[in-house]
Amino acid sequence: MVIVIHHTASTENAFHYNEKKVEEKAATFFHSRNTKAINPFFYDKKHRLKEISNIEKLNPRVKNKCLHISFNPSTDDYLKLGDKMTQVEIDKLMQHMGYGNQPYFIYKHKDLDRVHFHIVSSRIDR
Asked: Are β-strands 27-33 and 2-8 bridged in parallel, bridged antiparallel, or unpaired?
């Protein structure tokens, strides 16, 4: 399993990258946590982005506000874990890193020869 953590300036860019993949049918909405809506994927992307951008406005001094994680299980790992356990493991990862109470969105990508996941959140504590 490979996990790549990006801290970048633009949450909006990471967010729109994943939303575009969904529109292109190369990804699907997978899971979310700590959002105002029970299922934020029922709403449009502006609503989802606002969940994170409202938090980031609380601390404009931070330069790299975006937390964008690529969670890449091997084919064998994914077969063993399945979707439900992958969801649990990503939630544990976020908790362990100190972002467990942040709103975050997880996208399941199928645009490579293997399934992988992207997590988009903010590094600003709400």
From this structure: unpaired
The sheet carrying 104-109 orders its strands as 2-8, 66-72, 116-122, 104-109, 27-33
Residues 6+ positions from 45 with CB-CB distance below 8 Å: 15, 16, 19
Tokens of 15: 């967010």
Residue 57: what residue type? Answer: K
Q: How many domains does the chain have?
A: 1
What CATH number is associated with residue 68?
3.30.930.30
Residues 6+ positions from 101 with CB-CB distance below 8 Å: 34, 126
The domain of 31 spans 2-122
CA distance 105 to 32: 4
pLDDT values of the chain reduced to their tens digit, one per residue, 126 residues: 899 999 888 899 999 999 999 999 999 999 999 998 888 888 889 999 999 999 898 888 888 999 999 999 999 999 999 999 999 999 999 999 999 999 999 999 998 788 999 999 999 887
